[in-house]
Here is the input.
Amino acid sequence: MKTGATLTYSQQKKKHFQILDHMEVDLLIDDNPLSIPPEKLFAMAARVNKKRGFLFVSKVLGKHIPVNPLKPLLASGLLAIEHAERTNGIAGDVKSTVIAGFLAEDVESMEKAYTLLRKQRLKLSKPPIVIGFAETATALGQGVFDLLEGATYIHTTRESPENLNPVLTFEEEHSHAVDQRCYTAEEVLTKDRPIILVDDEITTGKTVLNIIRDIQQKYPRKEYAVLSLLDWRSLDHKKDFQKVEDELGVTISTTALLSGSVTFTGQTLDQTSYHYEPVETEMNSSIRQIDLSEYFTKLSNQKEFVKETGRFGIDDHDKRTIELACQKAGRHLNSLRKGKRILCLGTGEFMYLPMKIATFMGDNVFYQSTTRSPIHPVDRTQYAVKNGYSFPNPENQNVKHFIYNLPEQGYDEVFLFVEKPVIDKSLQPFLKICSDRKIEQVTIVTFS
Here is the structure.
């Protein structure tokens, strides 16, 4: 039985993926504005989801595949620069260097590109509101926000903070967890500022149109933009965007690093035979906890969360504060690290701060995040997800999280970043996973 994701070329712009024996995807690439090889952006895997059977597993987000923490920040920068060029005619003067650093595998080139990117500020015709989609694109959205002058940032969330009503609610229809909400001060949305929606991938665009309809009903405006790494909308899906533009009297521009159409053939997986539990039960990992709350801002009405995530809104004035806080926190953790090869692990939608902190933690540091999405692992060449583990989220035991592509003896220390305080008992399932992967040191990093 064929279980690897093999790639064949029939023409330059066509690609065929045999994901599983009963699952195939054909791509037709229409637009590649920065000439980025598709294999640099993603690999393929099978979702455990009867609504959508396949998954474009990003190689640049730091979600399912570990990356140098600079890589997602460079991806965000390219999206912001490309959007500014397309909609406002602003040419990013560091674009070629950022592209080179993004495509590079050596740390020196990535650092050079990011040093220039951090100094880049793009002034659009109106200061936008940037909204990143949970859970996968919360860091991607905040990275876009970093470059835009006068911007405000919010990310959607699956959290339900006590005593707060969401200002926006909508559904991500294909997702494993469909309910999405936004919490911020209403005055942020009452002004007619352009809204930039940031996601890692658009396949049908239904989620985007769902949130646009909700915004337009409550806080009408004229201009929306959708930024994504990948855009696989069909002609019919693009026509749906045009219909919504006409219906609501708005413009919806789109920017992506790679665009085309996708055809799926086969059967979806509504369950998997893969066993996500660790084999070993003996605990061999040493554990410690480090508190970073002194570097970050507790919210007066939601003390379990910190302001700097953007979940409740941040603006232009917060950028410098966040940069310094992550710098100080990263250098502090670097002084305490015991391992030579480190994995920094964000949790769920809590991605940007752990990723940013990881950039200041020295050499041989990799970053990725846990996820709620069940994916079917297969240990085969070119298949995107080699192995996987599941465990109850230490912050909320009712929510199952997954972590993928953990190599055996690949790291000697893991830093697990959790926004909320956790109790020792809740960490036991995760510690078993670390022991199973021969990780000697586990450091739990808390923020509030």
User: Anything to note?
Assistant: Residues 7-11 have pLDDT under 50 and may be disordered. The first strand starts at residue 6 and ends at 8.
